[in-house]
Amino acid sequence: MPLVTIDFETFYSDKVGFSKLTTEEYVNHPEFHVIGMGVKVNDGEARWVSGDEAVRRELASFCAADVALLAHNTLFDGAILAWRYGFVPGMYFDTLSMARAIHGVDAGGSLAALATRYKLGAKGDEVINAKGKRLVDFSEEDLARYGQYCINDVELTYQLFNKLIHRFPEQELDIIDMTLRMYTEPVLHVDMSLLNSRLRDIINDKTALLGSLCTELDCTREEVQKKLRSNPQFAALLVERGVAPPTKISATTGKETYALAKNDEGFIALQEHEDSVIQQLCAVRLGTKSTIEESRVKRFIDIGERNNLLLPVPLNTTVRIPDAGPGWIQ
Questions:
Q1: Contact 303/311 with Cβ under 8 angstroms?
Q2: Which segment of 114-118, 253-257, 293-297, 304-308 scores lowest on mean pLDDT?
Q3: Which of 17, 38, 128, 262 is the most exposed place for a label (fewest CB within 10 A)?
Q4: Is 211 helix (H, G, I), strand (E, B) or coil?
């Protein structure tokens, strides 16, 4: 099984990229497109192919099922291969997952940081100059420089893999492969009917609560929502009803503050107050300020729509490999 090391360079901007989107949102974004791909077979010389058609021709030269694929952050590169090109290798390797298992998730897992840690060489910064540039925006010279930058990343990834694989347990490599396939080859189905039904219920419940409170307080829904999102204004509404707002000592400042979070005991007690309007205030506050369920339901719906009703599962490998002792980093 040949080891094929790859690295994709893709369009990104202030609005389209990892800083604003999840990997799944980014790869499926309408503006997403491949600038080029660096590829290295076994210990051969890395090369650069640019443009979607060139990448397709390159991938067609391999039998995917017979390939062991290596990348740094294979969650990203593997998703591009599987979702954009229908290329699913026989085995996934990922130097990011391996490094996290060895050094921990907080030790610096970027290719640049690991190249420095293992004294492999310097990672370039040409990607910074590519921000906002589509393939058609590159001059021939700029694209060549970008290609060299990508080739360097491929070589660093290959060298890093040879450092990490030295004492990496085979069964842990299988777990990394399995974890990546949960994302690149999803099997969980999104029940759109159930999700849409629940979303309607959430919205209807919130609308009914707001309507009831608007009548009671004689103000618009926008005014009610604004008041209920603010701790001081919500506390003022309680005072107007003759109820002292619950307080607590802030763990951050050590000072007294309102105890109006959904898990605060004082706020929980207010939800069972004898005054039904106070109960409504609390219910609507929970419905307007805490939008976690609504936003999560919407997110699942959006993911399902982008992925043919399937749910890619993005998990990180968290197992720690025991310290290999002196000489591990050579």
A1: yes
A2: 293-297
A3: 128
A4: helix
